[in-house]
Amino acid sequence: MIDSVAVLGVAAIALGMVLTPGPNMLYLVSRSITQGRAAGLVSLAGVALGFLCYLAAAALGISAVFSAVPQAYAALKVAGACYLGWLAWQALRPGGHSPFVPARALPRDSSLRLFLTGLTTNLLNPKIAVMYLALIPQFVHAGAGPVWFQSLLLGSVQIVVALAVNALIVCVAGTVAKFLSGRPAWLRAQKFVMGSVLGGLAVHLALDRTRPAVV
User: Fold this and answer.
1) Is the per-residue pLDDT at 51 higher than 80?
2) 10 Å Cβ neighbour count for 105?
3) If you average pLDDT over residues 1-11, what whole number do you get?
4) What percent of the chain has pLDDT over 90?
5) Is 69 exposed, middle or buried (0-12, 13-18, 19+ CB in 10 A)?
6) Which one of 1, 61, 88, 173 has the fewest beta carbons within 10 angstroms of its own beta carbon?
7) Nearest to residue 137, comparing CAs of 151, 152, 158?
8) Where do the H-state alpha helices sit in the chain?
9) What are the CA-CA distances from residue 136 to residues 63, 79, 164, 195 (Å)?
């Protein structure tokens, strides 16, 4: 049986990940600001399907592959730590870009294109790949029941947290962007918090020595 510590641990990491800048946030925020909340929510539906694809892969036992080839798992974690560290630097460096300040205006897209772009963005998002292939497996333990069930439950926790927070971000993106545009100190604070969380996750992932559990 999965204990509450594992559930809360995944929820906390999922919250930290969704609140830090990455491809999903950049796309959802930019669409919400330039095309409205409805476009942002359609894009989020595509992102949600991408989460379900990762969840299916986790439940089908992708961790078994990394258990059989521990070097591949170690390489993934190193790559994931480097990627998260790069995102942290992008947020913390002087002149770093905030997701709530779109770099350029975007053309209006159809609902189908918004959905498919949201799906593609999430499937190709290294941050989500790291989440499912390196972070969540740390909370899966062979003695706590079938690994596929644990992966399914913990992945579902991540999806609920990510979708709830992303839906909120979509709904308030325009307001937040307007608020931050006239308050540079708040903008710097927002980037500092995001960068610090990403940096902490990068260090944790780089130093972690656990291996994925298998049935």
Assistant:
1) yes
2) 8
3) 84
4) 16
5) exposed
6) 1
7) 151
8) 4-18, 23-35, 37-59, 62-68, 70-92, 111-123, 126-130, 147-181, 184-207
9) 10, 16, 19, 21
User: Mean pLDDT across the stretch 73-98?
Assistant: 68
pLDDT digits (tens, 9 = 90+) for 160-186: 999 999 999 888 887 766 666 666 666
CA atoms within 13 A on the CB side of 156: 7
Residue 148 pLDDT exceeds 50: yes
Torsion of CA 67, 71, 155, 215, to 10 degrees: 0
The tokens of 40 are what? Answer: 């942002």
* DSSP structural state of residue 17: H
Q: How far apart are CA 195 and CA 147, in angstroms?
A: 32
- Both structure tokens of 50: 């991408």
Cα gap 22→194, rounded to integer Å: 10
Q: Residue 103: how many CB atoms within 10 A of its CB?
A: 9
Q: From residue 197, how far is each of 21, 79, 105, 143, 213 by CA, in Å? A: 10, 17, 29, 31, 26
Q: Which amino acid is at 128?
A: I
| Strand (E) or helix (H) holding 54 | helix 37-59
Rounded to whole angstroms, how far apart are CA atoms 46 and 152? 20
Kindly report the pTM of this predicted structure. Answer: 0.70
pLDDT for 63 beyond 60: no
Q: What are the tokens at 38?
A: 């409805």
Average pLDDT, the chain: 76
Is 25 in a helix, a strand, or coil? helix
Could you list the beta-strand ranges (E) of the chain: none
